[in-house]
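step 3/5: co-fold with 4'-phosphopantetheine
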Amino acid sequence: MGESVIRRVVCPGSYDPVTNGHLDIIGRAATIFDEVIVAVGENVGKRALFTAEERITMVRKVTGEYPNVRVEAVDGLLVDFCLQHGVGAMVKGLRAVSDYEYELEMSQMNHRLSSVETLFIASDPEYSYLSSSLIKEVAELGGDVSVLVPGHVLAQLTTRMAERRANFD
Ligand code: PNS
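step 4/5: write tokens
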């Protein structure tokens, strides 16, 4: 048998913003693989609250403790990014059955496009209800999301919500 072990993986997402649930998956991937590239991309189905640059800066800040994690922007197709960076597989978190259909579609499309594999890590049940979209909605309506996102992200979120409120006034 030759060297067939996957060493470098990508954790893709829009990370708008990065949550404790994302960090759980990134941290676990970082203990399994030699190198993890967090690929911050655009989801065409969602309108982002933070710019790509802001999202990348936040993810860099909160993954700083992992020496084998780096953060990059994805502009075009994720599979092209994987090929350019010599990545054999992408790693995604699965929170619940409701994630499965969407993730299955994407993984099959990505495999058809390029043979890049998708590996799934089951999310910690503590985070199974957590999503960036819900965090934004709760934060916008004044709810407490302080245990759901890293402190740095909470500060950014609070500032952005205050800016939005000021713009609407
Ligand atoms: O965190 P999200 O919003 O579920 O992440 C979705 C993301 C960014 C991973 C996905 O939209 C993506 O891969 N975008 C890059 C463009 C691309 O390759 N699209 C085809 C996906 S099959």
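step 5/5: annotate
The mean pLDDT is 94.
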